[in-house]
Amino acid sequence: xxxxxxxxxxxxxxxxxxxxxxxxxxxxxxxxxxxxxxxxxxxxxxxxxxxxxxxxxxxxxxxxxxxxxxxxxxxxxxxxxxxxxxxxxxxxxxxxxxxxxxxxxxxxxxxxxxxxxxxxxxxxxxxxxxxxxxxxxxxxxxxxxxxxxxxxxxxxxxxxxxxxxxxxxxxxxxxxxxxxxxxxxxxx
Length: 188
What we know:
RNA-binding; seven-stranded mixed sheet; Pept_tRNA_hydro; EC 3.1.1.29; Rossmann fold; alpha/beta; 6 helices; tRNA-binding
């Protein structure tokens, strides 16, 4: 199950907080998915990828209640937590940078906190960087607005790379995928 976190509705389209939706949409485009159904407060599409069935999921509960859709879907389809990939925005990473983790804390992210509260804790995390607010901009305004033109291409590259990384992790497994797609540390 590949879950992209975001907020539904036109007013949030293209916002930084919808980074997860952007990656799921990119995967849907690559895999030629066009049939979505509404199920358990989410948009869900089923697709065969290399002989396996994958579910693409975009919760429609708003970011802070994402777990309300993800937990029930995971249980309905009998998907193990470690087979749930969650893609979401991260202000602590530069725009377009990706970091994959097998587990961890919620890192102050309300969408992830909601997943924890709804029985989904040990999932694979794909954190896509949106950078920190500039100047005096507050966090809420930062995450709920689109990127400035200066960052659009950088973010689009990050979305494409994150989609490629999801595919790679599906094929290689999490450990090998993390080795391949996480940023390399510079040696001193």
